[in-house]
Design goal:
Protein name: NAD(P)-binding domain-containing protein
InterPro entries: NAD(P)-bd_dom, NAD(P)-bd_dom_sf, Polyketide_Oxido-like
Number of helices: 6
Domain NAD(P)-binding: 7-193
GO molecular function: oxidoreductase activity, acting on the CH-NH group of donors, NAD or NADP as acceptor
Organism: Granulicella rosea
CATH class: Alpha Beta
CATH superfamily: NAD(P)-binding Rossmann-like Domain
Strand order of the largest sheet: 3-2-1-4-5-8-12-10
Shape: globular
Helix content: 25-40%
CATH architecture: 3-Layer(aba) Sandwich
CATH topology: Rossmann fold
Number of strands: 12
Number of domains: 1
Length: 207
């Protein structure tokens, strides 16, 4: 599969790149500064500011994975980026878009999201709000999309291959802990690319 990966230099993007390569997929890694990418990885430069450039960058891709992370002081930049990615995919052909999403739009009780619950730490409210809007943008688009929400705690860890998947409810263990390693998240994302189960919907993961 030909996959174009945005945000390949970030913590999540690095793990997704490694997982895709390990499974034999052809990955084109895209970054604002391609010099930060591992040697030998096919790379392109793009800052996601122009629809036509994005369309040219993803031409020929079967799937586009967006692990883009906006600046902490302007999290709504992810909205413009998503709008341009949607437009570029519509323009370039029929590539599928998988977005590395957020957990705060997941329900922690019937009809109550983590964001709305009031339990989200204040520093995370801005990015959580922006990512909730990203999901809304995707839902109103006409492209083939998937939004993949991690667990509440999403950190580097072990690649175990043992996890649970869900849809719109936060996945937590019997003690109420919701966590997933970046490595296991990458496994599930590539699984979804290889055997689609969640087209035009959100899904999530946790232990």
């Amino acid at each position: 599969m030909n996959v174009t990966l945005y945000g390949a230099t970030g913590k999540t993007g690095q793990r997704i790149l490694k997982e895709l390569q390990a499974r034999g997929h052809h990955v084109t890694a895209v970054a604002r500064d391609p010099s930060k990418l591992p040697a030998g990885v096919p790379a392109k430069q793009d800052d996601l500011s122009d629809v036509d450039r994005i369309a040219a960058t993803i031409a020929g891709a079967d799937a586009v994975v967006s692990a883009y992370a906006p600046p902490a002081d302007d999290t709504d930049q992810v909205l413009g980026v998503t709008e341009r990615q949607i437009a570029a995919i519509a323009k370039a052909g029929h590539a599928r878009l998988i977005v590395v999403g957020g957990a705060a739009s997941l329900e922690v009780a019937p009809g109550v999201t983590l964001l709305a619950s009031g339990h989200l730490p204040a520093p995370w409210v801005a990015i959580a709000t922006s990512h909730s809007k990203v999901l809304d943008l995707l839902k109103t688009s006409s492209i083939d999309w998937t939004y993949f929400s991690p667990a509440a705690f999403f950190e580097p860890g072990e690649r175990t291959g043992k996890f649970r998947l869900g849809k719109d409810q936060l996945v937590a263990d019997a003690q109420g802990n919701s966590r997933i390693s970046l490595e296991d998240y990458a496994i599930a994302l590539v699984d979804e690319l290889e055997k689609p189960q969640h087209r035009r919907e959100r899904f999530t993961i946790g232990y």
